[in-house]
Design a protein that fits this description.
Blueprint (H helix, E strand, L loop, with lengths): L4 H19 L10 H22 L4 E2 L12 H13 L6 E5 L6 E5 L5 H11 L3 H15 L4 E2 L12 H12 L7 E5 L5 E5 L5 H20 L1
Antiparallel strand pairs: 1-3, 2-3, 4-6, 5-6
Length: 220
C-alpha cells in the first residue's frame, strides 16, 4: 500500500506552525503590565468607596480622592473618572453638582438616586427657604404637581411643622420667590406650586384629589 509520506509531513509541519503561532500572544492580548494593574486597582478603590458611602446615604465630594488615603493627582483622578464613565460595570456611578457651590459629588444610583442627591445637597446648604422653593419648582416642572407643605415635616428635613409654616410664610412674602403660590385643599392641607409651570386651578385640583377625592374613592 502506498503512503503519502510527504503529504503527512506537510500536514504535521503546518499543524506544528499553527500551534506555535497560537502560543505567541497577540500584542492586544498580552497581560497588563504593573502600571495598568495599578490603575485598575485605583479605579476599583474609587468605585468601592463611592458605593460604600452611598449605601450609608452619603455623597462623596470628589475632592476626597485628592487627599489621603487615596492621594490621587487631579490628572489621575480625571483619568479614573473617564474610565468610570466609559465602563458599563460602573454605570451606577454618577456625579451631581451642588446648585449653590458648584462642588461635584459622586454617588451610586443603586443606593442613592439623583433626586435624593439633589435634595441632600439642598438640605446641606442650610437655607430652608431655598430648599423648599427649589423642590416646589422642580415638582411643578417635572411631574407636574404641587407639593404638600406637610411633606417638609418628615424626619429627613429635621423641621417641625411650625418651623415649616414659618419658612413658607417667608417664601410667600419674598419677591425672590414670587412664582411660589399656595393652594389649600378642602381638608385644610396647604400645597405649594410654581406658577411658572402650573396654573392655580390645576394645582388646586391635584391637591384636592390627593387629599380628599382619592381617599373617598378608596373608602367606598
Amino acid at each position: 500500500m502506498a503512503t503519502d509520506v510527504d503529504g503527512t509531513a506537510d500536514r504535521i509541519e503546518v499543524s506544528y506552525l499553527d500551534s506555535e503561532a497560537q502560543a505567541i500572544p497577540d500584542e492586544d492580548q498580552q497581560a497588563p503590565d504593573e502600571e495598568e494593574l495599578a490603575f485598575r486597582r485605583t479605579v476599583e478603590q474609587v468605585v468601592e468607596h463611592i458605593r460604600a458611602e452611598s449605601t450609608a446615604e452619603r455623597l462623596v465630594d470628589m475632592g476626597v480622592f485628592l487627599a489621603e488615603p487615596f492621594s490621587l493627582t487631579e490628572e489621575l483622578l480625571a483619568t479614573v473618572w473617564a474610565q468610570v464613565e466609559s465602563d458599563d460595570r460602573y454605570a451606577d456611578i454618577v456625579q451631581t453638582k451642588d446648585e449653590n457651590t458648584g462642588v461635584v459629588y459622586a454617588h451610586s444610583v443603586t443606593f442613592l438616586s439623583g433626586a435624593f442627591a439633589k435634595l441632600t445637597l439642598r438640605k446641606q446648604a442650610n437655607d430652608p427657604k431655598y430648599m423648599i422653593a427649589a423642590l416646589v419648582r422642580e415638582n411643578s416642572d417635572i411631574f407636574p404637581k404641587p407639593t404638600s407643605v406637610e411633606f417638609f415635616s418628615i424626619d429627613f428635613f429635621g423641621m417641625q411643622p411650625e418651623e415649616v409654616h414659618g419658612y413658607v410664610d417667608e417664601i410667600l412674602a419674598d419677591e425672590a420667590y414670587a412664582d411660589i403660590k399656595p393652594v389649600v385643599a378642602s381638608n385644610g392641607v396647604m400645597y405649594l406650586y410654581s406658577d411658572r409651570f402650573l396654573e392655580e386651578p390645576t394645582a388646586l385640583r391635584m391637591a384636592e384629589w390627593v387629599e380628599v377625592d382619592s381617599l373617598d374613592m378608596y373608602n367606598q
